[in-house]
Write a structure and sequence with these properties.
Layout: E1 10-15, H1 19-25, E2 32-36, H2 46-56, E3 66-71, H3 76-83, E4 90-93, H4 99-116, E5 124-128, H5 132-136, H6 138-142, E6 148-152, H7 156-159, H8 173-187, E7 190-192, H9 207-220, E8 225-227, H10 233-239, H11 244-263, E9 268-269, E10 272-273, H12 276-303
Parallel strand pairs: 1-2, 1-8, 2-3, 3-4, 4-5, 5-6, 6-7
Antiparallel strand pairs: 9-10
């Protein structure tokens, strides 16, 4: 069975200095809460935001979520010193540009883990490839540290100033999205994102459009996505979880393949031959669904005040 820390479908960004947002985030049902020090904090407020991180790590887990911190790479030392404490699950590196940058973050975290009593290597990393150089260096960034768990595009369309086509679509986003899934697969990392369509830019999409973007994203290989609205969390969780029909189809396919293999014949479903790779995909779908259900049970237990450790 998949470990629960592989099931991170919804990543809810929360400004550290917005206590009302943190309170609502704990009941939104996110798999991961990201306490943000990079995107939604004014420069003048960043010292105060750093001061608030440590005390907010445990409260952010009240709904059963894991907690990551999103750091500003230009302020990485200050942000990491404020963030790497017991209770932290990981760090999102916004605007990740180079492998050396990732190695610097890794080294700082290693020092803080030793200094503050965290298990070595326990803090994971997600690299957000939001710039042209970051995307160009994507594979090298994804493999720069064993801490790297996943990669995402973040707000790539804004940072890279991609030009919209007359249709309203962002012309490079489909390419960057598909490339991200490919390089993540080659690097053995988890791709995070969704297949957004005009007029959505992702962060402010309606629940309905978020669900469709998540379903399309899962179909091409994404495993979860960032969001900023509480109402987007449930659609992301649903969209990145196999439907009942998918489970029935996967179960039928797996059983047919097993029966045919045992009989020494070729498995056929709906007129198509079932190869071992297709059978493995069906098994992966069933395993993913089971792990999603375990994640939901874990969060429900946390809400009820009976949290259990992640297996």
């Amino acid at each position: 069975m998949l470990a629960l820390d592989n099931i991170r479908r919804s990543w809810l960004l929360v400004p550290v200095l917005r206590p009302e947002r943190l309170l609502s985030a704990t009941s939104a049902g996110a798999d991961v809460v990201i306490l943000d020090l990079a995107e939604f904090v004014a420069e003048a407020d960043k010292p105060a935001a750093r001061e608030a991180v440590k005390d907010n790590l445990e409260p952010a887990k009240a709904g059963g979520a894991e907690v990551f911190i999103q750091i500003d790479p230009e302020l990485m030392l200050a942000d990491l010193r404020a963030s790497v404490w017991p209770g932290l699950n990981g760090v999102v590196i916004s605007r990740a540009n180079t492998p050396d940058q990732v190695k610097q973050v890794d080294a700082i975290i290693s020092s803080l883990e030793s200094e503050r009593g965290l298990l070595p290597g326990s803090v994971e990393l997600v690299a957000s490839l939001e710039t042209a150089s970051g995307n160009h260096n994507g594979f090298d960034i994804a493999t720069a540290s064993p801490r790297i768990w996943g990669v995402t595009l973040g707000r790539a369309d804004l940072v890279m100033d991609l030009r919209p086509e007359p249709s309203g679509e962002i012309h490079l986003m489909p390419y960057l999205t598909q490339r991200l899934v490919t390089l993540a697969g080659a690097a053995g990392k988890v791709p995070l994102g969704a297949w957004w369509r005009f007029p959505d830019r992702g962060l402010l999409a309606t629940p309905e459009n978020t669900l469709q973007a998540a379903r399309r994203g899962r179909a091409i290989g994404f495993k979860g996505s960032f969001c900023v609205l509480d109402e987007q969390v449930e659609p992301l969780n649903d969209g990145f979880t196999p439907s009942d029909q998918e489970l029935l189809d996967a179960q039928r396919l797996g059983e047919t393949y097993a029966e045919a293999t045992a009989a020494g014949t070729v498995a056929v479903v709906n007129g198509g031959y079932i190869t071992i790779d297709i059978a493995r995909q069906a098994a992966n779908t069933l395993a993913w669904a089971q792990a999603c259900a375990e994640r939901e049970r874990f969060k429900a237990a946390a809400v009820e005040g009976r949290p259990v450790p992640l297996p």
